[in-house]
Specification:
This protein has 162 residues and is of the alpha+beta class. The protein is built from eight helices and three strands, in the order ααααββααβαα. Strands 1-2-3 form a three-stranded mixed β-sheet. A hairpin with an 8-residue loop joins strand 1 and strand 2. It is elongated and about 85 Å long.
Amino acid sequence: MQFKKYTKQRNGSIQGLRSFKDTLPKNIKKFISKRGQIYSETLNNWKHIVGENLFKVCYPKSYKNSNKFGVSTLTVMVRRGNEVDLEYSKKEIITRMNTFFEDQEVEKIKLTSFNDERKIIVEKNDLNLNVTNNKFKDKISNVKNEKIKKSLLELTKVFKEK
């Protein structure tokens, strides 16, 4: 049996599971190997590249490879108020990244700031332990028997927890 040499399908078949990289078309493989690998490696090693202090306030957003119109640029998101710290350490980060990748991969770092508004919900400590709303509170207060009042209040607590 003869094999066709010039077909658009894969040359050989592999029995069993294939890796995701092997199932992709060749032109997409080239695209991923050029752009995707640098960004993913940067994400994985960001703490090692920038250090502990800057790791808490910034993260890489995107990476653009160099072309004939521009240089390779890493866009970094920085928490508002910490832009100056990252601005002073730009050159150090560029040299660390280039030594990490053993090539001139990053030539410029672009900063983008964001607000970090963390909404902290403060729980109110009520002095009154009744968890019922006003509508039922009035009806329960009209009950004359104290044991029944207590049991109704505890019943509303159980319903409130669920």
